[in-house]
Amino acid sequence: MQTRQEFADKMLEILEPLKPFYSQKKALLKLGDTSAHYPDHTAWVEGFARPLWAIAPFLGGGSRNAEWEEIYRRGLAAGTDPQSEEYWGDCRPYDQMLVEMASIAFTILLAKEPILDKMTERERQNLYRWLSQINTNPCYDCNWRFFHILVNVALKQAGQEYDRSGMEAGLQFIESCYVGDGWYLDGPDGYADYYVPWAMHFYGIVYAMFMRDTDPERCSRFLERAMQFGKEFVYWFSPDGSAVPYGRSLTYRFAQAAFYSACVMAGIEPLPPGVMKGIIVRNLEYWLRQPVFDHAGVLTIGYCYPNLQMAESYNAPGSPYWCMKLFACLARPENDLFWQAEALPLPPLEPQKYLPHARRIIQRMPDGNVVMLPAGNLLYHIHTHTEEKYSKFAYSSKYGFSVMRSAVNFAEAAPDSVLSFEVDGHIFVRNHVEQWSGSETSIKSVWSPFLGIRVQTEVIPEPWGHRRIHVVESDYDCVAYDAGFALPLDAKETGWVKRIQGTGEEMLLPVDPNTNLIRSKTKIPAVKYTIHKGKNVLETAFRYD
Known about the structure:
It is a single chain. By secondary structure, the protein is of the alpha+beta class. The chain has two domains: 332 residues, Glycosyltransferase, CATH 1.50.10.20; 191 residues, no CATH class. It is built from 15 helices and 18 strands. Strand 7 and strand 8 form a beta hairpin. The longest helix is centred in the middle third of the chain and has 18 residues. The protein is globular, with a radius of gyration of 24 Å.
């Protein structure tokens, strides 16, 4: 893909299979029968709203499509009309519908003329009133605070009453999440995961596009931070288009590259346009090579294949369409220089990069494998599979990571890339990290998997992989497994794990299917160590070059 038309055609191709599943008045989109923690009706509102992340810039960039314009004109009118049988309903505090308001605000900002201007005045006022509920219903203290901000930016731009003081409070909260050099955390003491590029920066860029006359200093700051961040975020991507799977909400898939698409939309260049275009194109093409669609052509919940096992409780059937943020670049018109730029390879990057604000080291291996060595999770369990998604010692673009099916044995726990302890017939892994420190040469952490066991771990990157040194203080005898990446069941790769210090046995262990995010059938190389009461020093080498 090179031209805007090719991008637009691909976007429309991805959305075309959704058309039969819209409700009669188009306000709801039901794409499946699995559930999230919010009401099913809300899930259908989510399904309706998320394609707008692509449709709004598509229309805002000058394209017209009568069918999609009609679907969303009718749907917005019916969904926000209290007299309609498809009314979305009144919101509650921390309601999922507050999340979905953001894509509607995005549409007001980018595509008011082809959609809202064709609605009646009553329909528009119904829409504005429904959106204004975000001013009386609080959002969670994380990237959600930006939903309140964006809705009020849209109300302001539409000439409606808006919550000026609430916006300022939200913006000050976002400021409290900034930690330096372009990096935010997703909430105070939160995570440095994909919500930094596809939420904190994405929404900051949108704010800057529409508020620069009103709030020029803050808008300039948001864009400068995005410029800084984009120079380090590139390290997360492999030359083949994949990116390191790490953290929650990975079912959003090609939203991974949405940050660079937002930069294109806003006309800023943390990297040369051709390089950003290459990242966007390769990431999308990588995902389109994976079996991520069902037989009807609808995106599934999962990562590289359909997999409810790895999902969060907030993943409904329509949730994966948050990935349509990747198409923000369509806001640039056909004659924009971006569309004339050639999609270029990644620029020269350091083989090993310490990202202090993200609390991790990134390794870039000769075969294209990108490996992340994070300090671990500083918060206690919050979301589904928090331990697996944040607290392993290593994450890989090539091998992914595995999620626990149960904790009753190694096969069901599938504890790859972590030191796990078998105690009383159960498997325990690193969760909350009590302390951490990092440098260009190692990542250190202090943690406890279970009462009576305390571990100090140092992860040391090497040109061929990494080493782990664990000092284990245990109140009793038990068994521990220091494991590497999960390998495909038929893998020819060595992917070996070698014991250097400690009493242990090297082995290759089969695990349950559908535990790994990238491959459905895997095996895990590990060293099984004998842990004695008292102090134990373990050292293991992991090769993946």
